[in-house]
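Q: Got a minute? One more chain.
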Amino acid sequence: MAGLPTAALQLAGFLMAHAFWSASDLPPGGHYQPQSLCMRADGNRQLQTFDGATPKEQDDAARAFTSGGASQWPDCAIARQVKVGTPKGDVDALVIDIVQYGSNVMTVVQAFQPSPQGFRLLGDELMLGDNGPLPPLPAAQAAAAMREGAIDHPGLGDKWEQWEASRDPVSPLVQK
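A: Always. Here it is, folded:
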């Protein structure tokens, strides 16, 4: 975690906000179409959406980009929606891979409740490195940098603040 630049985390936070903005407007049963947001050293960004006939094909295209096309960029964040099985049933989650020059540096998982039930974030982001969850202090620093990036999204208005205010205190992805 020590080598991960704040800029990469803020980029991932910006994409996280953009993805949740899209997910919050989906109809019942809708699925977020995976996207990447990549940034050059000069700060220029490029947003890409991954196409496919099914959510699985879209997810496969995003995964292929993570290990392929992302290598052309100093910093990339790739977001996709998954279902995570828990003892209490499946939970929707946004998975964001943070990639630097083609190497996956970190994965962030944020559980959420889709919009038909009233969109909301479920607990804090889970910050995962090569060896599993990050220790508490680096995880908190990474989450703070991501939330700075989320707040910077110009199209959200006050949605992020509303989501933060109504965020569930504990993620359903954390085992007790």
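A: The chain is about 30% helix and 30% strand.
Q: Perfect, thanks.
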